[in-house]
Amino acid sequence: MKGRFSHEGRAGALARSRLARYGADMTQSLPAFAQNARFDVCALGNAIVDVLAPCDAAFLEAKGLIPGSMQLVDEDQSATLYDAMAAGVEASGGSAGNTVAGVGSFGGRAAYIGKVAKDTLGEVFSHDIRAVGVHFDTPVLEDGAGKGFGTGRCLINVTPDGQRTMCTFLGAANQLTTADVDAGVIGDSAIVYLEGYLFDPAPARAAFEAAAAAAHAAGRKVAITLSDSFVVHRWRAELLAFIETSADIVLANEAELHALFETEDFDHAAAHLGRIVEVAAVTRGAAGSVLFRGGERVEVAAYPVEKVVDTTGAGDQYAAGVLLGLSRGLSLAEAGALGSLAASEVIAHWGPRPMVGLKDLAAQHGLSL
Ligand SMILES: Nc1ncnc2c1ncn2[C@@H]1O[C@H](COP(=O)(O)OP(=O)(O)O)[C@@H](O)[C@H]1O
Ligand SMILES: O=C(O)C[C@@H](O)[C@H](O)C(=O)COP(=O)(O)O
User: Fold this and answer.
1) pLDDT, tens digit, for every residue of 233-246?
2) Whose alpha carbon is nearest atom 1 of ligand 1?
3) Residue 169: what are its φ and ψ, rounded to 5°?
């Protein structure tokens, strides 16, 4: 059993007063696992550039796509689907990349480990993640472009209700290996955040395990997102084993939670997850989220959104707020509120990353960091 969070069970008011002191005396306010960390969050993920376009339900059906899912495709399938899609927009994505971009937007200190190729999309991805202050220096795949290992891309079709359906060609992202895991950066990060998506590419799974071991060796916390219900169906036993042995913090949406425990009973499954890890945060779309820590259970409302344009990145931005909040020793309610706020910003426009500074947005809503 790993060590508990040092601020467990403290009241929100206390966390607020700690926050007020944060600028004056950072180290005293932080949980033990975040002391002397250079980064709040370091994420390991599939480095992907998204192509987003509107579509209708008939388009998804005609292409055999399951609404709301992420499906892996090869390069030819990706090219064929792209030809059939409406005019769209390109934006840097990658689930964990989106999360650390959100952490950076909140004014947090973040790092990213993921593989891009030496091509235009790789330059776009690298530029965008560094532009929000995220430390990113994973070696580029030198000879991938044109050989089936160009920078990964995700074709995202968005229905009028804002729901996103994703088809990902991993390309260079598939070449992430243990050699890319910078144990120094991970040991210097309060939380290492891992994508469940990394269970698909075999070499990345080893990198995943290495990153978790490096984090624990340095006294840091390991967080994982379950990513997608079909990923959970594919790797259920392996994911469960990883969670039980190596994860301190788990993020999941409702469908992923149900897939993990093979049940439709939300309350039972969520409570069970809450018992086997230190912190669990389970999202329920517009119905908000539920967070668990020790015996504590907190429901957090979603922020109302006038018009949901594109839900791509909702879970990723929610994770940004929650992870940054936990690394700063906030209460579950406060961390969850930061997550809800970040998610509400991203679903009101196209693309998976914030378009306004989340730090200012949080301040406008009375949430200080
Ligand atoms: N329609 C919505 N209105 C307001 N907030 C939403 C809406 N959909 C999602 N969110 C916010 O995004 C979070 C994550 O959404 P969810 O759909 O559960 O995750 P994922 O994107 O991983 O499937 C929710 O907890 C909520 O805060
Ligand atoms: O990583 C992928 O395969 C897809 C990402 O590029 C995409 O931006 C994404 O994961 C969106 O996040 P979500 O809607 O929060 O799941």
Assistant:
1) 999 999 999 999 99
2) 286
3) -100, 115
For residue 21, report the distance from its CA to the centre of ligand 1, in Å. 31
Q: How does pLDDT run across 86-124, given as a tens digit for each residue?
A: 999 999 999 999 999 999 999 999 999 999 999 999 999
Higher pLDDT, 173 or 1: 173
Predicted TM-score (pTM) of the model is 0.93
**C-alpha torsion sign, points 53, 169, 68, 207:** negative
What ipTM did this prediction achieve? 0.97
CA 283 / ligand 1 centre spacing (Å): 7
- Nearest-CA residue for ligand 1 atom 2 is 286
State residue 106 phi and psi, 5-degree precision: -75, -5
Ligand 1 neighbourhood includes 236 CB (under 6 angstroms): no
Q: How far is the CA of 129 from the centre of ligand 2 (A)?
A: 15
Show the tokens assigned to 191. Answer: 């939380």
**What's the gap in Å between 52 CA and the centre of ligand 1?**
18
Confirm or reject CATH 3.40.1190.20 for domain 9-45+94-138+172-364, answering yes or no: yes
Token pair 């059906």 in the structure block, residue: 61
Nearest to 338 by CA among 354, 348, 327, 325: 325
